[in-house]
Amino acid sequence: MMMDGSDDDRVTDAVASRPAGDAYRRARLQARAAVADGLLDVADQRLAEEGPGALSMRRLANAAGCSTMVFYSAFGTKAGLLAALAEREADRWIDVAATLADPDPVAWLDAVASTLAAFASERPHHRALLFDPSVGGPAVTRVRDALLEAIDRAAPGARADGVAEAMWAGWMGALVEEGGERFAQAHRGLARLWAGYVAEHPGTG
């Protein structure tokens, strides 16, 4: 089938417009992401100050100065909003293991545990949301994987030997139920396990 000149022109115009169309779509996606991030800032602050009761779409929309439709457009449902908040909190926890550094594996893990205990104590509503299995399941899995990898980097072999998993299991029992103070107590016992492992593996660190 042969195309006439007008068909050639339409094809040429369509090809030429693709970069502009792609740029427009990228700009729209970036704008939507920025809006969602701003809405999360509002929800994040309300959760910290007032607890989960403040996370109704109507109350959040009033606080943000927008309609509830803006929140629904950004997150789909309230469950979507809660999941996004849990993911944001997971990022904070993961950043701890990624940014804290110490050549001594024992000192490093103590610093990580101390910072996470402070998170759990100072941000109780965020901790409860993150470790709520109906909300934060995927987010907690990311935290777990990041911490296990970080522990294994600090003491290579710790994951294969089950030590990293033992640390995580001990921490989780405290985090899910009781929060920061209990977490710090649990870590004091786990720290002895960790120090013993590091001492038995002098090539770590």
| Total of DSSP H or I helical runs spanning 4+ residues | 9
Shape: globular
Using DSSP, what is the number of strands?
0
Q: Could you list the spans in which at least 5 consecutive residues all have pLDDT below 50?
A: 5-12
Q: Could you spell the SSE succession in H and E letters?
A: HHHHHHHHH
Q: Mean pLDDT score, rounded? A: 83
Spatial gap, N to C terminus: 70 Å
Strand count, sense and closure of the main sheet?
Answer: none
Structural class: mainly alpha
Q: Tell me the β content.
A: under 5%
Helix content: over 70%
Backbone CA Rg: 24 Å
Index terms:
80% helix; mainly alpha; 205 residues; globular
How is this fold's topology laid out?
Blueprint: H1 5-50, H2 57-64, H3 68-75, H4 78-99, H5 105-122, H6 124-130, H7 137-154, H8 163-177, H9 180-200
Helix pairs in contact: 2-3, 3-4, 4-6, 4-7, 5-9, 8-9
Task: Give a verbal description of the structure.
The protein has 205 residues and is mainly alpha-helical. Helix content is 80%, strand content 0%. It has helices at residues 5-50, 57-64, 68-75, 78-99, 105-122, 124-130, 137-154, 163-177, 180-200. α2 (57-64) packs across α3 (68-75) and α4 (78-99) packs across α6 (124-130). The protein is globular, with a radius of gyration of 24 Å. Residues 5-12 have low confidence and may be disordered.
